[in-house]
Amino acid sequence: MHIEVKNLNKHFGQFHAIKDVNFSITKGHLVGLIGPSGGGKTSILRMLSGLESPTTGDIYFDGKQATNLSVQERGIGFVFQNYALFKHMTVYDNVAYGLKVLKKSKEFIQERVTYLLGLMGLAGSERKYPHQLSGGQRQRVAFARALAPEPQLLLLDEPFAAIDAKIRKELRLWLRNLIDEFKVTTLFVTHDQDEAIEVADEIIIVQQGRIEQQGSPWEIYTKPTSSFVASFIGESNVIAQYVPFHGFPYLAEIQNEGKWLPDVNVLIRPESIEVRPHDTTNLATAGESGKVSHVHFRGDSWYLEIETGPIKLFAYQSVKERLYQPGDEVNILIHQISVFTAADNKIIENQAKKDPMPVFI
Are residue 130 and residue 210 in the same domain, yes or no? Predict the structure, then answer.
């Protein structure tokens, strides 16, 4: 099912919760809806489902007006954070519930439920009750129940939030494979940006009731349209004041007396910072002198905090590379800086890498 939302607004009394929201979702895509708490994610999900009515605006399913359709007419499957399983029903009856409502034959229900439980890795659990299952198993039952009536649209509201971190990571890949198997259009709300980046075809970022950006995880990470998106997706060093970094003369044009001009935001991704020995001879004058202040082990990398001039930056170092210690003098090569102004956004490259000053040995 192809989804299109046009000029969607929602008021709760005097509060304008959703503000002129527009987006479309390609049939069969898995789309993550993310943003800060209270930003409007769940309100958008509830309007798509029919549980809430928009104040103004239109919702189209496959090009047909769906704004005023009832929940039952929309052909939607739901999965919620708290599973919402029927506690008094067995796993089999939970999954079969929607099919019984649709008055499907016993033979069809038996075949469909057996197929889904096998796909979910729950074969043999048909007679168990929800309280006899782990959190991950209960959520799989919730997915099976949602998929049983063959919905055209699947809506997921923080589906893995109540599950342990290790199991949650396993379920991400499982969800991606599941959607590929069923090819059902899916919109899922999550507060976990890593989850969205890992499994989604596209991400829609919502802040204060507005769409900040929609695009693939790669597009949003590498080409954020605002400083909010850049700081919300992934990690960034926020440069709060002007620093005359080598190779970035443009920065001098957007500051006045050491302060950024109004509406200017400057960020540096940690992967754009290369930490080298202080006596490096490779593009030495294109880098900045610094001192390591803290080192933290992150499993597959070292997290380094480095003081350079009046600011502190953080970067990552592979565990296979040289290990720096607090107090070590280093040379840090900044490859790129992201600059956001009222007029435009740009990623600027270190010009000193192209024409560095000579180093005589």
Answer: yes
Q: How many independent structural domains does the chain possess? A: 2
Q: What is the pLDDT of residues 253-312, one digit of tens each?
A: 999 999 999 999 999 999 999 999 999 999 999 999 999 999 999 988 999 999 999 999
**Higher-confidence residue: 217 or 159?**
217
Read off the CATH number of the domain in which 175 is found.
Answer: 3.40.50.300
Same domain, 20 and 77: yes
One domain, residues 240 and 165: no
Residue 357: pLDDT band with limits 50, 70, 90: low
Within this chain, do residues 251 and 104 fall inside the same structural domain, yes or no?
no
Q: Are 233 and 63 in contact (CB under 8 A)?
A: no
**Phi and psi based region of residue 253 (left: phi greater than 0; alpha: psi -120 to 50; beta: remaining):** alpha
Are both 84 and 215 inside the same structural domain?
yes
- What confidence tens digit (pLDDT) does each residue in 121-158 have? 999 999 999 999 998 899 899 999 999 999 999 999 88
* Residue 225 within any structural domain of the chain: yes
Same domain (yes/no): 209, 263: no
Domain carrying residue 201: 3-230
Q: Per residue, what are the HEC states of the chain?
A: CCEEEEEEEEEECCEEEEEEEEEEECCCCEEEEECCCCCCHHHHHHHHHCCCCCCEEEEEECCEECCCCCCHHHCEEEEECCCCCCCCCCHHHHHHHHHHHCCCCHHHHHHHHHHHHHHCCCCCCCCCCHHHCCHHHHHHHHHHHHHCCCCCEEEEECCCCCCCHHHHHHHHHHHHHHHHHHCCEEEEEECCHHHHHHHCCEEEEEECCEEEEEECHHHHHHCCCCHHHHHHCCCCEECCCCCCCCCCHHHHHHEECCEECCCCEEEECHHHEEEEECCCCCCHHHCEEEEEEEEEECCCEEEEEEEECCEEEEEEEECCCCCCCCCCEEEEEECEEEEECCCCEEEEECHHHCCCCCCCC
- Computed over every residue of the chain, the mean pLDDT equals 92
Residues 176 and 271 in one domain: no
What is the model's pTM?
Answer: 0.86
Cβ 65 vs Cβ 58: under 8 Å: yes
